[in-house]
Design brief:
Distance between the termini of chain A: 10 Å
CATH class of the largest domain in chain A: Alpha Beta
Helix content of chain A: 25-40%
Shape of chain A: globular
Structural class of chain A: alpha+beta
Oligomer: homodimer
Strand content of chain A: 25-35%
């Protein structure tokens, strides 16, 4: 079976880019013309029972919450505001109305928190439950952040802590919409994405899109409580913001005692002109090493 | 198991309507503010293997075509132009890259024909194949057509012919985007939707949204070749336009020799103030009867 990243690459090459777009396939959301000052953002993400959660274990409210939250996280990663959501469901014949209602209660609560209106959807019969949510958002043209803008010498930063997803965080995380809005309003961010497949994999993606490499300081990784460094690197679904900024901008961000609206920010490495991801224990170390750990493969 | 229409009704009541929207849940597409002269349209529709098509029988190009076409049809039913598409797939582990590529070839060809850019998507692992496509479009504010505008005395019209879906039309139909654009540009249409669940069911939906009823002339139904009247009423997935207009407007539309860009238009009935769907063989008949035939239930 062909891996997801390779398949996306092939599809991306197969489908022609529209010249009028700011960004199509290959970022957290598509960036499309809207008006003089704004871009329209469109993102879609699907969760499937048995792959992204387990019906037998997860609360329906949490499943609904996650289905929307992963999309809000994509909009946040562009520096944007979510506005509208469409919810397409695949519903097994034996699923109760009670479960579906609780699922929508999870969506409704999070949608309200982030001023997102659920404006439509689709119901299909299917053997396994799935939810495919589309979110439309907007972003000021001068604040949009793509994945391809990292420059050699930029600092690499991350919000929150990494590695808690398997302990349940992946079902209850709060998308970093407000933190991202604060970032793009007050600072110049060169590249950004959300951590959905693990830092190891996603940092590699971010650097490849930017045509750069990275040196990561392992002692600086904000490891979640009761979690190992390896899990912090490899577990998927942290849904934290991973971003780059010039050293001067990074210094200003890190100088904020309150972080981003209370969420801590950590500098975890540096962008290098040379491709590939390298590691040091501390920034001041001279010893550089490689890690063969892999990120999370949903697919 | 709760029927789809009932479930949609319950969800619709459960989710609060946003006051800023022209139309949310309950039409072919959501109608959202865009700019002074235009609305943004958002529609999503999912097809699932074994429900909406059969992998073992359908060409992958046709499955891709259908996944996009049903959404273009939703945009058409609002009087709009499709602009962008997002493609979310659930892919079984044993599905070949060759199949997926042919699926995208079907999408690509139809997208090109209707000037729609595929700008993003998502790939998930799943047991059964599904494709959930979202289309964003736009429509001039003075041309948008909702489902709720039918007036008593209006003529009921339909494009093309009905009942061919099971003979393969559901995989290869051409969405009526151009015909709808022509309709809303030159005529005043009071209500419109696409026929996806069979004329019997969809006419009932259209009249209920408008708070009206209908009298249908069975001799006027444009029955597809090698098809029965019952099939024309009950088979789903014709993806023709079902719409209403004042008698004077309807007369002008029907007077066009070329129909709508070559597609014939037929007057099939009249909107009544009294709810419910009634039937006559011919308009001039005095004998009115009921039909207990049901539309197609996808769910």
């Amino acid at each position: 079976m062909i891996p997801e990243s390779l398949l996306i690459g092939k599809i991306r090459r197969f489908l022609p880019e529209d010249a009028g777009l700011k960004k199509g396939i290959g970022d957290d959301a598509a960036v499309l013309p809207l008006d003089k000052k704004h871009y329209l953002l469109l993102a879609v993400d699907t969760i499937v029972d048995g792959v992204d959660f387990r019906m037998a274990e997860a609360k329906p409210e949490h499943v609904g919450r996650k289905a929307l939250a992963i999309n809000l996280s994509d909009i946040a990663a562009m520096g944007g505001r979510p506005c509208y959501a469409l919810v397409a469901l695949g519903i097994p014949a034996d699923l109760s109305y009670f479960w579906i209602r609780r699922f929508y209660a999870g969506i409704k609560k999070l949608a309200k928190e982030f001023n997102t209106a659920v404006v439509g959807g689709d119901l299909s019969r299917s053997k396994e439950f799935f939810a495919s949510v589309t979110v439309a958002g907007e972003v000021e043209k001068n604040r949009v952040v793509l994945r391809d803008g990292a420059k050699a010498g930029d600092s690499i930063l991350v919000t929150g802590s990494l590695g808690g997803s398997l302990a349940g965080k992946h079902l209850t995380f709060t998308p970093r919409v407000r933190e991202a809005a604060c970032l793009v309003k007050y600072f110049k961010i060169s590249a950004m994405m959300d951590v959905s497949d693990g830092l190891m994999r996603d940092l590699d993606v971010l650097m490849k899109e930017s045509g750069k490499g990275a040196c990561v300081f392992t002692d600086s990784i904000p490891v979640s409580r009761a979690c190992t460094l390896k899990k912090a690197f490899c577990d998927g679904e942290d849904f934290e913001l991973l971003f780059t900024a010039s050293p001067a901008e990074a210094k200003k961000i890190l100088a904020r005692k309150e972080g981003l609206l209370g969420t801590p920010v950590q500098r975890i490495g540096m962008v290098t002109a040379k491709p590939g991801i390298y590691f040091k224990e501390k920034e001041t170390d001279t010893k550089v090493f490689k890690l063969s750990w892999k990120g999370y493969e949903h697919f």
